[in-house]
Design goal:
By secondary structure, the protein is of the alpha/beta class. The protein has helices at residues 23-31, 85-97, 116-127, 142-148, 166-179; strands at 12-17, 38-48, 51-59, 64-70, 77-78, 81-83, 102-108, 131-136, 153-158. The protein has a domain at 12-44 and 93-187: Rossmann fold. The N and C termini lie far apart (34 Å).
Length: 188
Amino acid sequence: MKEIDTGYKKRHILITGSPGVGKTTLIASIVVRLPGTKTGFITREIRKGGVRKGFIIETLDGERASLAQVTPFGSPRVGKYRVISESIRRVGVPAIGGRADFIVIDEIGKIEGTPEGFIRAVHKVLAGPSTVIATIAGNGNSFIEEIKLRPDVQLFKMTLRNRDSLAEDILKKISASMADDDGWANRR
């Protein structure tokens, strides 16, 4: 079957996979190898006694804030976590709003997608000139599904089988896009 040219280049990279498969580790290993300028954030687990108690958000330039915590009180909530929307508005949204060759978002998920400002910011960066590299929930709300269905994204599914080779596959995709006369290099 012949592929139809829709005029869209799959310039954004989305990584999905089961919880705990290593998506954050993967994206962190890709970020340090990217050429050019980059901005964005990584989320990290807070663990106590081997049990996940929450998450922090950390920008690529080192700013940190609590993102979500296990607590019986407070809202908004996603599952057992109380989302700290102020951290997303104060740290996450500005981190992805800067100008850079690459914008890193770990992750586009139910927790990060809670504040409306974050949703608007993600739409804006996907429509802008930067290449977005993000992890994204496997299942989720309409916002998550809409992002995964965009014609300008390429979705990579991370599994235990491919997690050791996926970084190289993604970096090759980025390198090929940069070399393409109609791709990344001409958007700078």
